[in-house]
Design brief:
alpha+beta, 3 helices, five-stranded antiparallel sheet, two-stranded antiparallel ribbon
């Protein structure tokens, strides 16, 4: 069964545009068909100080993956593109821990998965802070089906 998922992607280190394009290609390979993609949006860092601005985007894809498999796949893509150790429990989908924000080559957030609601220490869907973030909501509104 195909599920519709929305992901937010950001980068503020390295060749940001190329890293976003690579992340989207990997999402298409490892998660499922990317059916919509927003334009890239340049934004200032939020929640931490940095001299590096972000490029942000959102994608909609169709996937056969379960929510937990999706989390694992997005964390693997982040690891491949230089974010963090592969098996780290991250804030990519915001568990209940307070995330430590920092510069990063690629960050992928699971924003929505069908109309599912999940609230566990490892995974929270819909993303609990997306409504507060223009850098998420502007690209997301652009691609909402």
């Amino acid at each position: 069964m195909k599920h519709i998922v929305y992901l937010g992607i950001g980068s503020n280190l390295g060749d940001r545009e190329q890293l976003l394009r690579q992340a989207i290609m990997e999402i298409d390979k490892q998660v499922g068909s990317v059916v919509r993609q927003s334009a890239f949006l340049e934004t200032e860092p939020q929640g931490f100080a940095s001299t590096h601005t972000f490029l942000n985007a959102a994608v909609c894809c169709e996937t056969d993956l379960s929510p937990r498999q999706l989390l694992s796949a997005t964390q693997h893509i982040e690891w491949m593109l230089g974010k963090r150790p592969q098996h780290a429990t991250g804030h990519a989908v915001a568990g209940h821990q307070a995330p430590a924000y920092h510069d990063r080559p690629v960050d992928i957030d699971i924003l929505m998965y069908d109309d599912l609601t999940i609230d566990t220490p490892e995974l929270t869907i819909p993303h609990p802070r997306m409504q507060e973030r223009d850098f998420v909501m502007i690209p997301l509104r652009e691609i909402m089906l």
